[in-house]
Design goal:
Distance between the termini: 14 Å
CATH architecture: 2-Layer Sandwich
CATH class: Alpha Beta
Shape: globular
Helix content: 10-25%
Radius of gyration: 12 Å
Number of strands: 6
Strand content: 25-35%
Number of helices: 2
Length: about 100
């Protein structure tokens, strides 16, 4: 069974994403194990996919880009993201969960 993991920290919520760079469109593509799978148009070079990931998540969650950051996995498809200023309900709704 696949289960999305959302963890509340002192400064925001933490969750896993699985990024597929070089896609035709930016979109949420369901779940991948315990992470949200994101398809992004940006290539996986020079941090472009990371920046596209953060900008896409900020737009999706309606928060300023400065409130979204990659905590770990900067050079991996599997990343842990921290987002501040948003509720758990809004995160689940944005991802269609």
């Amino acid at each position: 069974m696949t289960c999305f993991m959302l963890e509340k920290g002192k400064t925001g919520f933490f969750f896993k994403v699985r990024v597929q760079p070089g896609a035709a469109a930016n979109q949420v593509a369901g779940l991948y194990e315990d992470a949200v799978k994101l398809r992004l148009t940006a290539p996986p070079v020079e941090g472009k996919a990371n920046e596209a990931c953060l900008a896409f998540l900020a737009r999706l969650l309606s928060v300023p880009r400065s409130q979204v950051e990659v905590v770990s996995g900067h050079t991996s498809r599997n990343k842990i993201i921290k987002v501040a200023g948003v509720s758990a309900e809004k995160i689940f709704k944005a991802f269609g969960l």
